[in-house]
Design brief:
Order of helices and strands: HHHEEHHHEE
Largest sheet: 2 strands, antiparallel
Strand order of the largest sheet: 1-2
Radius of gyration: 38 Å
Amino acid sequence: MSSLRNAISRRAHKERAQPSSRKKFGLLEKHKDYVVRAKAFHKKEETLRKLKEKAAFRNPDEFYFQMIKTRTVDGVHKPENQANKYTQEELMLMKTQDIGYILQKLQSERKKVEKLTAVLHSVDNHPSNRHIYYAEDREEARELQSQASESRVTPPFGDIPDHIKRKTAASYRELEARKSRGNQLEKLYMEMSLKKELQKNGRKRKLREDELTCPTSKPVYKWRPERKR
């Protein structure tokens, strides 16, 4: 019976609009608008109830160190500056882990670029079946040359399907994108390695432009030699 009841078309009862005499009050709220407003109201009401419950059961003797490490600015808790949160050894360890991850990604990109380059190189270069023949004299050489020209058959590379051309173009775009990503990763790896070396102990100074044998826009540092015991 339920299937028959659902098969019969029913009239869609529409909600009335705002009467013309009440146009000044704006649009008339529909049921779906009331549902959204009621959910938002009850959500705020539940949040206030939980906060009141926490305030009622609060322990006046409660203390933890975060209370003295933060301050309130315009009603918002602001933590203290945590610039020196980690020691020098911990910072060096994190730098090493970051550099290792960047190096792993760089090597992966290089391998993918080499693989794509090899595939596209084999597609672009037409196979050349060359055989070297050795002749005793010029007459035999001319005879071998004529035989080779007669047996040579050029493969029809001009008639390439469109989907093959599209795939080749997409592969070239991917190759260029991977090369660009590899260059960016290599630049980032060099910068992070330099920062890690600068954090190590030892006296060092930045070389001036007139001291550089190969002028470059990047900073070059020189460490003072130390005697190792």
